[in-house]
């Protein structure tokens, strides 16, 4: 499994890449393996301002549907439109082409509570 060290992680198995006052969010390599083949990503929160821990969408795999939780407070700026036609990008490239939302971070202090790659690996027992 892959755990890029430049990312932060949550106990809900999301990752976040901070770029200034914006951030990209998706699910971890571990999460996509646990879910199996992703068949649909449902995110209808563009323009919504969400608090840390709010649901920003869901991901549907062959056998289950799982909610997606925003790791930091912010406003959803963009959804990865490529996932409409190719939801399997979440499986094949979860940290790059399989990103889910881009947000404007409203509370940078939220980042401090997130897990490092090493902490996340320990959390999942990898």
From TrEMBL:
<dbReference type="GO" id="GO:0019464">
    <property type="term" value="P:glycine decarboxylation via glycine cleavage system"/>
</dbReference>
<dbReference type="InterPro" id="IPR000089">
    <property type="entry name" value="Biotin_lipoyl"/>
</dbReference>
<comment type="subunit">
    <text>The glycine cleavage system is composed of four proteins: P, T, L and H.</text>
</comment>
<keyword id="KW-0450">Lipoyl</keyword>
<dbReference type="GO" id="GO:0005829">
    <property type="term" value="C:cytosol"/>
</dbReference>
<dbReference type="InterPro" id="IPR017453">
    <property type="entry name" value="GCV_H_sub"/>
</dbReference>
<feature type="domain" description="Lipoyl-binding">
    <location>
        <begin position="22"/>
        <end position="104"/>
    </location>
</feature>
<feature type="modified residue" description="N6-lipoyllysine">
    <location>
        <position position="63"/>
    </location>
</feature>
<dbReference type="Pfam" id="PF01597">
    <property type="entry name" value="GCV_H"/>
</dbReference>
<protein>
    <recommendedName>
        <fullName>Glycine cleavage system H protein</fullName>
    </recommendedName>
</protein>
<dbReference type="InterPro" id="IPR011053">
    <property type="entry name" value="Single_hybrid_motif"/>
</dbReference>
<dbReference type="InterPro" id="IPR033753">
    <property type="entry name" value="GCV_H/Fam206"/>
</dbReference>
<dbReference type="GO" id="GO:0005960">
    <property type="term" value="C:glycine cleavage complex"/>
</dbReference>
<dbReference type="GO" id="GO:0009249">
    <property type="term" value="P:protein lipoylation"/>
</dbReference>
<comment type="function">
    <text>The glycine cleavage system catalyzes the degradation of glycine. The H protein shuttles the methylamine group of glycine from the P protein to the T protein.</text>
</comment>
<dbReference type="InterPro" id="IPR002930">
    <property type="entry name" value="GCV_H"/>
</dbReference>
<comment type="similarity">
    <text>Belongs to the GcvH family.</text>
</comment>
<dbReference type="InterPro" id="IPR003016">
    <property type="entry name" value="2-oxoA_DH_lipoyl-BS"/>
</dbReference>
